[in-house]
Amino acid sequence: MNLREDARKIWDAAVAAADSEQAVQTALRVDGEELVLAGHRYSPDGDRRLIVVGAGKAGAGMAAGVERAVGDSVWRDRLQGWVNVPDDCLRPLQKIHLHPARPAGINEPTERAMRGTQEIVSLVSSCRPQDVCLVLISGGGSALLCSPVPGIPLADKLQMTRALSRAGATIQELNHVRTHLSLVKGGGLARACTANALAALVISDVLGDPPETIASGPVTGRNPDPQAAIRILQRYLPPEQIPPTIMQVLAGKHPRQPVAEVSYTIVAANQMSLAAAERTARRLGYATQVQTESLQGDAAAAGRTFFRSLQQQPASCDRPWCLLAGGETTVDLSDAGQSAGKGGRNQEFVLAAAAAAPSGNSWSGKLLLSGGTDGEDGPTDAAGAFFDETLLRAVAASEIPADDYLRRHDAWNFFAGIGGLLRTGPTHTNVMDIAVGLSVPGNASADAGG
Which bin fits 429, alpha (ψ -120 to 50), beta or left (φ > 0)? Predict the structure, then answer.
């Protein structure tokens, strides 16, 4: 068995299960002349249009899925749209405009994202009552769909988001705060829509798939007390790190009014990808176990725990074994100060396991791989990393101190030096992270692939 090849096949299967173009077509098709969207049927009466907007790392694939579903039907000439995507996700489409809203690998709002969001708001607010408005939502949408409330400069919002992220705030907490500082999040986009029919197709990048958290809920009406956002800021940040403009806006806010009813459909999520990974592992001859479907918390701690579980292969299992986990961890950079290195949560997850088990016996017949299904892991060019016995020998030969790299949160440079980075490029989807651990008993034949 070639562990590297098998791990990559298993991980790739998880990503393929969340293919954004295919996912959209599970909920959108044309039957005769009727548009069938999430179970609702719309006839092409009069001059009814299909208006498509959206934002996210999967936006290009989702938009392509819409165009393919519509095909050459009567709806083709009634279709128009605008979707904000990362710069490296552009592709030629016929009817839906893809707007490059941020640089690759930098998941932060930009002036270009704000301009694109203005176009999206203008489009949904120009809908006629008879039109059908479809919103395509996926992970990364919080940064790509950006319209700060009056009184908050983009620079202040960026400062706050960076500080919260460095302090280890979860994606749910980040999005909760951002919701209260935006004109489009927390149902703001839905409130701007003037079509009677509003639907959302969603690829979830959040545990539990809560509509109000995915991309900060642009079409959902749940909007808890803004005081909760203040408590999150105060929990993680000292007063001097919170821009005064943000505290002033939050202190004067009130809960928003609910939005009108929206047809909301999850078309891809981490659990679906985990199931596909497990099926592939079994096909390759592995016994399987899902350690958790809610991987979260500190990346380093989670990586050490996952590897300990991989080492504890059930005694009754005398054949190759695959351990899986899905979710999304965080990296707390507050302990690194200005010396923080380069990396991402998946790279730190794997590095922590490597640092905790530095002996050859620990890695004999074992491999650990973890990657972001979007192809991005932190502000780097990698989706994640992998580690095995072959790389352990490279570490020993080079006398690379894994502990030092972990202490500096410098996983990218560690793995770049030994050839352990998982590079995929943009995958055009985003269902959080998938970790794959493989273990082959001592009496079985295994090739690490090095």
Answer: beta
CA distance 70 to 82: 16
Q: What gap in Å lies between CA 279 and CA 288, rounded to an integer?
A: 9
Supply angle C-alpha 335, 337, 343, rounded to 5.
80
Rounded CA-CA distance 27/268 in Å is 11
Task: Encode pLDDT of 265-304 as tens digits.
Answer: 999 999 999 999 999 999 999 999 999 999 999 999 999 9
Whether 341 contacts 70, CB under 8 Å: no
Please tell me the CATH code under which domain 19-268 is placed. Answer: 3.40.50.10180
Confidence of residue 359 (pLDDT cuts 50, 70, 90): confident
Predicted confidence (pLDDT) at residue 445 exceeds the cutoff of 60: no
| Domain ranges (residues) in the chain | 3-11+271-439, 19-268
19-268 has the same fold as 3-11+271-439: no
| Residue of 92, 112, 111 lying closest to 100 (CA atoms) | 112
What confidence tens digit (pLDDT) does each residue in 396-409 have? 998 889 999 999 99
Cβ partners under 8 Å of residue 299, min gap 6: 329, 330, 331, 345, 346, 348, 349, 352
Q: How far is it, in rounded angstroms, from Cα 392 to Cα 415?
A: 11
What amino acid is encoded at 7 in this protein?
A
CATH among 1.10.760.10, 3.40.1480.10, 1.20.1250.20, 1.10.1040.20 for 3-11+271-439: 3.40.1480.10
The structure's pTM equals 0.89
Q: Could you tell me which of 144, 124, 114 has the C-alpha nearest to residue 262? A: 124
Q: Tally the C-alpha atoms within 13 A of residue 311's C-alpha that lie toward its C-beta.
A: 17
CB 173 within 8 A of CB 232: yes
| Nearest-5° Cα angle at 435, 380 to 396 | 70
